[in-house]
Amino acid sequence: MTKTSGLALVAALVVALGGGWLARSRAEAPHHAVPPSADGNLVVGLCDGVTSAEVQGVKEGERLTRSQAQAVSDQLMEEWRRKNPQANWDDARAVHVAQAAQGGALEQSVPPPEGSRPGASIKFGGAGAAEGAREAAQTKQGGAPQGQTGGGAGGMPAGPQGPVQDGHTYGAFSQRDVDIWKAATDEFVAQGDRIFHSADLLGGTIGVSCDMCHPNAANTHPETYPKFQVQFGRVALLRDMINWCIENPVRGKPLPDDDFKLRALEAYILAQRRGVPLEYGKH
Amino acid sequence: MAWKSIETKHYEERDAFFRGLGRVSRRSFFKLAGVSAAAALAKGLVTPQSFQLVELAWAADDGGQAKPKFTFAYISDAHLYEQKLNDRFVRAILKAVDDVNALDPQPDFVLFGGDLAQLGQPKELTLGRDILKTVKAPVKMMVGEHDWFLDMGALWQQYFGPTHYSWDHKGVHFVTIMSVVEKDFWTARGMTPMQRMQTVAGLDNGVQSRFEVGEEGRKWLSDDLAKVDKATPVVVFSHSPLYKYYRPWNFWTDDADDVQAILRPFQHVTVIHGHTHQLLTNRIGNIQFHGMLSTAWPWPYAPEGLPKLTVQMNRADPFDQFDGCGDGAVDVLENGLANALYNLWDRNPITVKASYVASDGGQDRPPTTKLPSF
Amino acid sequence: MSRQTPRLAVLAGLIVALPFVSRADDASVPKLPLGISRTLYEVSVPKGAEPTPEKAALGDKLFNDKRLSVNDGVSCATCHDPQKGFVDHKPLAEGVAAPKERTKRNSPTVLNAMFNATQFWDGRAPSLEEQAKLPILNPIEMGQKTPDDVVAKVRKVPEYAQAFQKLNGREPTYDDIASAIAAFERTQMAGDSPFDRFIAGDEKAIDASAKRGWALFNGKGRCTNCHAFGTTSPLFSDQKFHNIGIAAHKTDFIGLARRATTIVRSGDLKQIDEVAIQSDLTELGRFLVTKQSNDIGAFKTPTLRNIAITGPYMHDGSMPTLWDVMDHYNKGGVPNPNLDGGMQRLGLTEAEIDDMVAFLATLTSDRFAAFGKHEMARQRGQKTKRPERDTDAAMGRKGNLGDLAPNPNLKNPAGIGVILPPKS
Q1: C388 in catalytic set
Q2: Which of A191, B187, B240, C169 could lock onto B211 through a cystine, CB 3.0 to 4.6 A?
Q3: ipTM
Q4: Is C402's Cβ below 8 Å from some Cβ in B?
Q5: B interface mutation test: which of A216, A245, A251, A274 has the most B CBs within 10 A?
Q6: Model's pTM, two decimal places?
Q7: What residue ranges define each of the domains in chain A, with the CATH number in brackets?
Q8: What gap in Å lies between CA A178 and CA A180, rounded to an integer?
């Protein structure tokens, strides 16, 4: 979705809603009085009711070309962003997964909504994305006019960097997907949490549970595996050590490789160490 | 029921063996840590590789200021289950009892640092009480949260008396307080006593309230210390650290600032605390803090909040149930401060000296850790 | 114990560094027996110190030469008999002062000794060269008074004078003699055992009982923490020092330690050697070297390779058979104030003990296979005499000697950690 058509959509919505509202109370209707241009140039107002831009070289009443319209919209959006730094405007930025431990959620951009036109391949993300978007559009054989990709109510969201890639394979997942996936993962980790804290669930016979020596999985250092594990005199993976601990300090039966409990414990331990850099072999 | 560890039985067998050989020497069974001062100096025990006998501290020419006036020992955080469920923790506390019973000379008293039981069960407390009866020196008891929150201290107080008490010993004022009071978190949740106990027993669940001495406790402490001269050395026994180390694990006393304010007017204050199951050292103003080791298991160091004076003990080896655990002794010095001897099992002992703490780490630094926990 | 950690750190560092630091000249690493890893060789034999055939042959001769002793009666081979697994099969070594006076320690094997981080039961010698020098000068082992006496004797032998001249271009010194003996010892690698073939992929190399024993070794037996085995580090020893309570029931550790702190001069290798070999302070083990309370009564974990043919066992030779050794561990050792915290009762049944002994027997190198069979038969004959056995303690019916895990029921109980698959 281009900025202009997006803007147009929003403008249309505002008018539609505003119109209804206006119909109720014409007397209090806000009116965006765009400042007139000294040279009689076209002045375009933004839907926030305060921002406007003067278009040099185009007189009031003239039509703008596509590229001119795009440039004006870009300018208005930039101005609006500058005025509203905290605004939660969903634009088409690249998806990235949080590196640091910033709470639980994967940070996501809004992925393209359903029904986006396939084949649209606009570059997005980072500086100059708008440029890239225009470039990519230019290299397309025929197809959509410059800068335009999907359209209509179900078109791809557009941000300053351009629209987001779409598709049906994994890489084009949606926010709904993210929510479900996160819930499933956290559920699994929560199971591991339960087992980690319970001598009975671990199969321990002396009332010792993992959290007694490893509160919040402290000192488990899963990021250091594979490493030489002194307790068995050879190299080990995390799950080897989990099983060894179950057998020795916890006094239970080591779990088979395909046991749910072993995997859940592994999941819990790894989840507690989010953000810690991998450093295999570290002691 | 007579509580004798297998080690004690062997001591007795050896005693008989040597008596038979005409080479009997009571003094032979003593751990080197307990070698008395005069004997140590007479033998010229200054070889570079010898482990740091606490007594060697007085080799320094400081007019005898750093000479121990007297010593007390401690056993802490036993976390006993009933023996048929868990024999391991019983074995460990018996080892500690053997250690303190084998000291020569005997310490003036032995402090029990709290958490005698794991889940506050009558059987656990009774077991602990019976084992501690075999300690030769007089035992001073301190309560921990694992002892309290099943029946809110009913059985503990029946067995061991009041939670707050003080006494004077060789010119030092000792105070034992209860610092594991918690604001009610269980009634609103409709918890049974066992559920409450199990919640408190978990370090990292974040449900229980943070520890505090509480208003009553602080008032008691204030009143008690009001009668004490500000120049008298004060030693406080507390289960929680009486400072703020790591809140999520309740390595924490919520009203620490208030308690420290009560202690501030005194020239020499040492706090000996349990709960943290690790070698821990801190200084806040005039107060020096030494954590006690547990006999049952070691805690890792918290991800943040570790006092900068603490030189970590090495990471524990889970193969060895005793590694990272132990007992210890505290030498109360002529100058009123205290050296803490950590008798780490299966490792060389470590002494954290008052001079190290007082100099903010400038001198007498304990040996560095080779492998910290993380 | 702290003395060991720098070495271990170096070892670890080298193992990590090895992919990047390999021998430019591959010919310098001899062909290794099956089971001896290249890592172990490269860590143990410094580049440039690889034995040459001439030097090793010279060392061989010296090793077997009784003239090195004061009375021409004892050679290295007397206590380290090459035909008998490089040990003498006596509980305590006997040198020039025998039978009047025996040493206080059992002779360790030379097989794979080159891979030890330190030499002797208490690690008092840092290298094979330093080790070779001490028994020759010990009053009751080979009895020579000074290194000069030894050198004089060796120089008088034309064969040696010529050989050393050829080797070094000059007359031999005491260091040269030790160096030649060490070179010979560096050729005594011993792998090639049925167990090594099993690890290399031959499922039939060891029988079912030994396989069960191997599983127990990794699990219920609690062996791997000290007798570590991995394909990169196949020595069956962590090279650390542990007090496992041998002879603790008749040893007054504390009294001995108090005496030792005053008598023993740290750093004086000769004096420590004499104290260890000749006096009752021998039981202090590593403490004689470090004087750290953690080391009281602690002795080095020996390799288990060829264990069947290197009895009697332990630093004082007090365990005649492997069954006695198993009994000792099964009951949790003998309690004493410094007992290693890893020691605890194991709860092994007789069948499990038999399985573990069967496994240990598979660690015998092929060249000693016949002798190994003979030794195992002899030991098995003594199975009924079990003075160390204390089943009540092992099964937990008396004493507080540790808790046990329930028996594991995994498909492959030895499958913990990574054993590298055989190279295809």
Answers
A1: no
A2: B240
A3: 0.85
A4: yes
A5: A216
A6: 0.78
A7: 3-83 (no CATH), 177-272 (1.10.760.10)
A8: 5
